[in-house]
Amino acid sequence: MVQSAVLVRQGFHALAQPVVLVRQGFHALVLPVVLVRQGFHALAQLVVQVRQGFYALTARSHSLAESLCLGDHAGEPH
Fold first, then answer.
1. Best CA proximity match to 47, nearest among 1, 39, 74
2. What integer pLDDT is reported at residue 73 of this predicted model?
3. Among residues of the chain, what percentage have pLDDT more than 90?
4. How far is CA 61 from the centre of its chain?
5. Tens digits of per-residue pLDDT, 47-75?
6. Phi and psi for 76 in degrees, rounded to 5?
7. Cβ-count burial of 43 within 10 angstroms (0-12 exposed, 13-18 middle, 19+ buried)?
8. What is the C-alpha to C-alpha distance for residues 69 and 71, in angstroms, rounded to an integer?
9. Could you tell me where the beta strands, DSSP code E, fall in the chain?
């Protein structure tokens, strides 16, 4: 009786082993997809930060240009 229980358990483990291997293989396939996705998100975030920096720089240069123009016209006689 104990012998048959051991054999049944070994048979179950033998059946479960391919399922475990398939699952590990699936995780091995999914991992690169996750890493690519994370890399894409990091790249997109970098693009957003560069764009925000460009907008801030553009706004600052417009502000500087306006103050220079106002400074030039401030001393002119009317």
1. 39
2. 56
3. 41
4. 32
5. 999 999 999 998 888 888 888 887 655 55
6. -75, 140
7. exposed
8. 5
9. none
- Amino acid residing at 39: G
- 1-10 long-range contacts (CB < 8 A, ≥24 apart) are none
Q: How far apart are CA 1 and CA 17, in angstroms?
A: 24
One-letter amino acid of 5 = A
Distance spanning both ends of the chain, measured CA to CA: 113
Confidence of residue 3 (pLDDT cuts 50, 70, 90): confident
What's the per-residue H, E or C state across 17-75? HHHHHHHHHHHHHHHHHHHHHHHHHHHHHHHHHHHHHHHHHHHHHHHHHHHHHHHHHHC
The pTM assigned to this predicted structure is 0.49
